[in-house]
Amino acid sequence: MPPVVFQPAAGIELEPYFLLEPGDGLLLCGAERRIVHVDRIAQQRIGHQAQQWLGMELDQAWPQLAELIVQEYRRLAEGPREHVVALPHPTGIELATRIRLFPTDSGFGVGVLRRRSQVLQPDEEGVSEEMTYRGLLEAVLDTAQDGVLVTLAEPLDRPGPIIVFANRALLEQTGYGLHEVLGRSPRMFQGPETSREATHALREALEQWQPAQMQVLNYRRDRSSCWIELKVAPLADRHGWHTHWVSVQRDITGRIEQEREWARAAEALAEQIKVKQATA
Questions:
Q1: Is 262 left (phi over 0), alpha (psi -120 to 50) or beta?
Q2: Domain residues of the chain, as ranges?
Q3: What does CATH list as the number for 25-112?
C-alpha cells in the first residue's frame, strides 16, 4: 500500500465535538500503516491479540480495517469518518466493531468506540442522560471565551498528544478549521521562534502529571505569530488514572507588545536623562 498522505480540505465547517470520549480506545498507525500505539482501552476492546500488534503492519493485524483505509484515507482530510468494521478474533469469529478514522501528524488514528446507539430509543434512559451531559459539556467548552484544547493523556511522543476537542475560541484564535485540528498534536501551533526552553519545561510537567502555566509564542494557520498565556492541567478518572490534558490559552499578544513598548519608552527616557546629566 502507498504511504498515507493527507491534504487539508478547504471550506469545511464542523460543529465542535469530542473526537474520542472516555471509554473509547485509541490505535495509532504511522505513514506506512505500521501500528505504533495501542492504548489499554483499545486492548480491552480488541482483545489480547492487540498486545502483539505493536510494530506490525495493519494489513497483517487487522486486514478488514486496512482495506477500509484504502477506500477512505483521502476523504479523511474532510474530517473524521465513522464506520462499523469486522474485527478478526482468534476464535475465528468476526466481531462488528465501531471505529472512527482520523488523520494525525504522522499517519492516522483509529478510535475504537464504545457500543453506544446512534439513534436513541425511548427506553435508553442511561444513554440519553449520557448524551445530554456530553452535549452540555461540549456547549460549555465551546462558549468559553478563551481557547480550550483537550488531548488524550497518552502518548506524549509523536504523533501525540492527540487533540480530541477544540472550542470555537481556539479555532478563531488560530485560524484553523476543526477538521484540521482534531487528531493532530498541539505541536502544530509551534514554529521557529517558539521557545524550546518553554516546550521542554512543558514536557517535563506532562511527564510528571503536573499542571503547568507559561507564556509561549505560538503560530496561527497563516504562520503569523501570537503570544499565548497557556495553562495545562491533567484530568483523571474515578480510579485515579490520568486520561486527558486540558489546556486553556489566552491570546496576550497585545499585552506583550504594550509591555515591550513601555520598556522601550522607559529605556529611551533613561538614556535622555543620562545624556542630560552628562552635559550638565
A1: alpha
A2: 25-112, 136-258
A3: 3.30.450.20
